[in-house]
Design brief:
It is built from 16 helices and twelve strands. It has about 375 residues and is an alpha/beta fold. Strands 2-1-5-4-3 form a five-stranded antiparallel beta sheet. The protein has a five-stranded parallel beta sheet with strand order 7-8-11-6-12.
C-alpha cells in the first residue's frame, strides 16, 4: 500500500506533467481552446486569435464557442461525450485539421472539453492520406484476389463426357444444384469429385458467394478443428492476437467442400454434425457463438457404409451428409468418354499454332479407348 507521502508526490508529479503538456500544446499548436460544459470558452492560447480575426484571447472568454468559431463542433463533443479525433474545420479562407476531446471529472461527469489545431494546413496531412489511400487500395486488391481464389472455375461443361453413365451423373448433379441440401459425392480417386462439386456450386443460387475447399486427408488431425472453426484471439501462446477465421466462416453464404470426408476422426465428426444441425459454432478457445449459412458438399473415395459397419463413421452424420448422393463411375465404365476427354485436353493445353494443329492418330485413340485407366481422369 503506497504511503500518504508517496501518493501526494505522485499527484504533484502528475499535475506537473499535465501542466507541462498543456504548455507544450499551447506553444506548439496554432490553436488551442478549452470550453466548459455549456460550450463557453474558458481559455484560448495566444496563437489562435490571429486565425480567427481578433488579437486578444481575452475577447473570447465567456462567449459561446459558436460566436467565436461558427463551424466549431465543440458543443457536440461536450453534449455527447464522444471525441472527434480528426476533422477539417473551415474558417473564412483558412482550413484547419483539428482534434476535439471531452473533459471529465473524477466521477466521470463531463465538465467541458478542449480542442486543438493539429495542423493549420490540411495539405500537411497529404503524406498520411496518401499512405492511407495506398493501404486501402492494397487491401481492396488483396480482397479481390482472395474473392477470385474462392470463386469456382469449373461448370457442368467442364465435366466432359457423353456416355450414359456421365449423363446420369450430370443430371443428378444439376438437380442437386437446385437444392440447398448437403451433397455426398462418391467416386474413385481422380474421377473429378471436386470439379463436380464446383459445378454444383456454380449452378446453385450460392454461385456468387465463396466456394471453400478443405482436403481433410491433407491436414494433420490436430489442426483440423482450428482449420474448420478458427481460433479466438489469444486462445493459446503464439496465436494471432486478432484471432483467425475458420473455413466455415470463410464459406459463409456459400459452399464448403470437404474432400476425403471418410478420413475424419470420430471426435471431429461429432462436432461437424452439431454445426450442420445448428449452423453455428464456437471458435477454438473462444466463448462467443458464430452463426453461419453454409451448404456442405462432401466427397470420398472410401466405402462409407463399410466404415459405418466398422464403427469408424457416425451413422447420424452419414445420413445428414448423404441427403443427396452422386456416384461418379470410374473412367473405365464410361464408354467413349476417355477419347472425348483426350481430344478436349489436347485442345485445352495447346498454346502454340503448331500444337493446335496436332491430332490424335487412330492408333492413339484406340489405345486410349481400350486402356483401363486405374488413375481415372487424373491419370489421363
Amino acid at each position: 500500500m503506497p504511503s500518504d507521502s508517496f501518493a501526494a508526490e505522485a499527484d504533484r508529479i502528475r499535475q506537473r506533467v499535465m501542466d507541462t503538456l498543456l504548455s507544450a500544446f499551447s506553444a506548439l499548436s496554432e490553436g488551442l481552446l478549452i470550453v466548459d460544459r455549456d460550450a463557453r470558452i474558458v481559455w484560448m492560447n495566444e496563437q489562435y486569435p490571429r486565425h480567427l480575426g481578433f488579437s486578444d484571447p481575452a475577447e473570447a472568454i465567456g462567449k459561446p464557442v459558436e460566436d467565436v468559431i461558427p463551424n466549431s463542433q465543440m458543443r457536440s463533443v461536450v453534449t455527447s461525450g464522444r471525441p472527434i479525433m480528426l476533422d477539417i474545420m473551415e474558417f473564412g479562407s483558412e482550413s484547419f485539421v483539428v482534434m476535439r476531446l471531452p473533459v471529465r471529472d473524477e466521477t466521470g461527469e463531463i465538465i467541458g472539453g478542449f480542442g486543438v489545431v493539429v495542423f493549420d494546413d490540411p495539405r500537411q496531412l497529404a503524406p498520411i492520406v496518401s499512405r492511407f489511400q495506398n493501404l486501402r487500395h492494397e487491401l481492396a486488391d488483396t480482397r479481390r484476389k482472395l474473392d477470385e481464389a474462392r470463386r469456382t472455375k469449373y461448370t457442368f461443361t467442364s465435366f466432359v463426357g457423353a456416355s450414359p453413365a456421365c449423363l446420369k451423373v450430370k443430371d443428378q448433379a444439376r438437380r442437386a444444384a437446385r437444392s440447398s441440401s448437403p451433397v455426398l459425392i462418391i467416386g474413385e480417386t481422380g474421377t473429378g469429385k471436386e470439379l463436380l462439386a464446383q459445378a454444383i456450386h456454380s449452378a446453385s443460387p450460392r454461385a456468387a458467394s465463396p466456394f471453400v475447399a478443405v482436403n481433410i486427408a491433407a491436414i494433420p488431425e490436430t489442426l483440423l478443428e482450428s482449420e474448420f472453426f478458427g481460433v479466438a484471439p489469444g486462445a493459446y501462446t503464439g496465436a494471432d492476437r486478432k484471432g483467425r477465421s475458420g473455413k466455415f466462416e470463410l464459406a459463409h453464404g456459400g459452399t464448403l467442400f470437404l474432400d476425403e470426408i471418410g478420413d475424419m476422426s470420430p471426435a471431429l465428426q461429432a462436432k461437424l454434425l452439431r454445426v450442420l444441425q445448428e449452423q453455428r459454432f464456437t471458435r477454438l478457445g473462444g466463448d462467443n457463438r458464430v452463426e453461419v449459412d453454409v451448404r456442405v458438399i462432401c466427397a470420398t473415395h472410401r466405402d462409407l457404409r463399410k466404415l459405418l459397419e466398422q464403427g469408424a463413421f457416425r451413422e447420424d452424420l452419414y445420413y445428414r451428409l448423404a441427403e443427396i448422393t452422386v456416384d461418379i463411375p470410374p473412367l473405365r465404365e464410361r464408354a467413349g468418354d476417355a477419347v472425348l476427354m483426350a481430344r478436349h485436353f489436347l485442345m485445352q493445353y495447346s498454346s502454340t499454332p503448331a500444337q493446335r494443329r496436332a491430332i490424335l492418330t487412330a492408333e492413339a485413340l484406340q489405345a486410349i479407348d481400350s486402356y483401363g485407366w486405374p488413375g481415372n481422369v487424373r491419370e489421363l
